[in-house]
Known about the structure:
This is CU044_5270 family protein. By secondary structure, this protein is α+β, with helices and mostly antiparallel strands.
Amino acid sequence: MSPSLTRDVRRLLGPADPAGGPPLTGPHDRRADLDRILAGAQATEARRARPVGRRLVMAAAALLALVLAGLQFVSVPQPAFAATPPLLRYSGGDGSARDALTAIAAKAAAAPDPARVGDYEHLVIQSWGLWTQVDGEYVRSAVIPSRLESWRGPDNSGRRATRFEEPQFSSTGREWLWRAQNLFGDGLDPTSEDYRAGQFPAMWADLPPTGDVDAWLHVGHPRENGPYETIVAVTDLARERLLTPAVRAAVLRVVAQLPGLTLDGSVTDRAGRTGTAFSVTTDHSGLPTRHTLIVDPVTGVLLGYEQMLTTDAGKLAVRVPAVIGYETYLTADWTTLPR
């Protein structure tokens, strides 16, 4: 049992401890009591003392068992649900998604290149994810916000730093369960790692082309998985590279051609920026999931990516429709590697 959980249980059971608190009698009184008990030992058969202390100890043990069992009970997904982010609100989603995104791609192609004050591609991404452990009938869920900052040099050297914020739970019982069983392990410790030339961890070692980016995007992203795999490829690219206007335009043109692409309309993203949202829905994971890209309608800059369960949560402890993950692309600029 973890130290924090031990403290909580002791605090809860403290009032029931028959040995807790200061002594009720002084040494002379205790000696007199002992003499009286020894003198009357043979006369106590007719009137047995009630084992109050033992009953209290047994009650405390029973209460402890209930507390620990309660940690298991609260992990059942009904009636408690994991605390998921509010759904974004979209407006003006009428019209052709292909035409709307193609028009944004044309604007992206005409946008100016970002100012260059160094040779490192600097990215900052705020993300939110639902961590879930399914064990038989028990489902344990926690919300983990995180922030990833990366610097990538032209020789594929650089640095990645990840910081996790405090996990979010829908109840104290759920939090106790996760922490008592150490389900996070060391996974929430902040990390920072430097990489020598050629060692930066990435799906693509080379720069994206401005021409036929379609085939390049689908390396490691099989087309047979469906249109959503292209959305996944685009978001993978956004985690790795600063996208120039020409590359942004090429990528958006690929997305515009996806079958089943829908125009969700205008939206304010989770960083307060105005964007236009486009989605594809798939059940490839086993659950109907909508994958949404949010782009700046003027520059084509990628603002965010959201995953939402639409009609069925399966064993996940969430109430549908529910956002189960999002990324907000906060920074993409040229800089130097900080010391």
